[in-house]
Amino acid sequence: MPPVQRPIFALALRLMAMLALSAMLLLVKLTGERGIPLGETLFWRQFLPGLALLGWLAARGEIGRLRTRRLGSHARRAFVGGTGMFLTLGVVQILPLAEATVLGFTAPIFAVLLAATLLGEKVGPWRWAAVVLGLAGIVIIAGPDRAHIPLGGLATGIGAAFMVAVISIQLRDLGRTEEPVSVVFWFSAFCTPPLALALLWTGLPQHDAAGWAMLGGIGATGLAAQLLMTAALRYGSVSSVIVMDYSQFGWATLWGWLVFANVPGPQTWIGAPAIIAAGLIIAWREQVRTGAAAARTPAA
User: Fold this and answer.
1) What's the whole-model pTM score?
2) CB-based contact 41:245 (threshold 8 Å)
3) Is the predicted pLDDT of residue 296 greater than 80, yes or no?
4) C-beta separation of 149 from 98 below 8 A
């Protein structure tokens, strides 16, 4: 039976997830500046949460909660999610935190484009206007100065947002039958082996205490963000909770200022509101469409 929808609770979970995610991305940028390879960061990001979940469930005698009949769906989610994670973590090592975060907000725009082109969904003027507004925001942020936003960083950020749009649909589908701990564990279980091979290729890691603390922090905050985001999509729809994602821009700007003495340029302050407004319009129209569909459905 599908879980009972609790929209306010789902919003609170998503808000906490964004705080955890912003902290994780800060640590990823710091590890990059210390010269820790991205492949190794990804390995610990996946291995530590999976190990922690397995140990916690074993201690409680609840390993059975990981039982699933949807291994194929988990494997597909791991492939898409692993690719998206590589791009999401990679872009923060290329761009300033605020700009990398804003590009991630284009995910709803790609969700609309995917719905229109692949699913044949009818998209009305409001959502098409939001797509145009969001794309304009990207152009403004990119600007003519390639030293501020290099082309590789821009492409990586947009690619990460596209994968997030696909992942959100997958998580919503898995959340109908799977517990958050199961979704997170199987994601780690499928991603860790290929990442371990990459780790062997680069050599065994050697870090000081601060480096290990950062990698452990990435695993802990990543686990918290995954659990909270998955739980939010279990109790609320994508369109209703995604509004909280924009709080991440505030955290990214704060971290960038406090830790890296980096303040977004004027083009970011102009382009970011356009992208955020586009996402909010899309979320609003999704809620309107969902409400209209529910009204047309006859009572059982």
Assistant:
1) 0.77
2) no
3) no
4) no
Residue type, 84: G
Is the alpha carbon torsion for 49, 55, 61, 64 positive or negative? positive
Distance spanning both ends of the chain, measured CA to CA: 16
Structure tokens at 108: 């709803």
Query: CA angle, corner 230, sides to 282 and 224, nearest 5?
Result: 115
Q: Which residues contact 215 (CB under 8 A, 6 or more apart)?
A: 31, 36, 40, 41, 44, 48, 207
Q: Are residues 215 and 31 in contact, defined by beta-carbon separation less than 8 angstroms?
A: yes
For the CA atoms of the chain, what is the radius of gyration?
Answer: 19
Identity of residue 144: P
pLDDT band (50, 70, 90) for residue 300: very low
User: d(Cα 241, Cα 297) in Å, to the nearest integer?
Assistant: 23
Residues 198/43, Cβ–Cβ less than 8 Å = yes
Task: Provide the 3-class DSSP secondary structure of residue 102.
Answer: helix
pLDDT of 161? 86
Q: Give the integer Cα–Cα distance in Å for 275 and 104.
A: 10
Token look-up 């210390």 returns 34
Alpha helices in 176-242 (DSSP H): 180-202, 209-235, 238-241
Per-residue tokens: 20: 């955890």
Query: The tokens of 181 are what?
Result: 């701990």
Residue type, 58: A
Find out whether 231 and 13 touch, Cβ atoms under 8 Å. Answer: yes
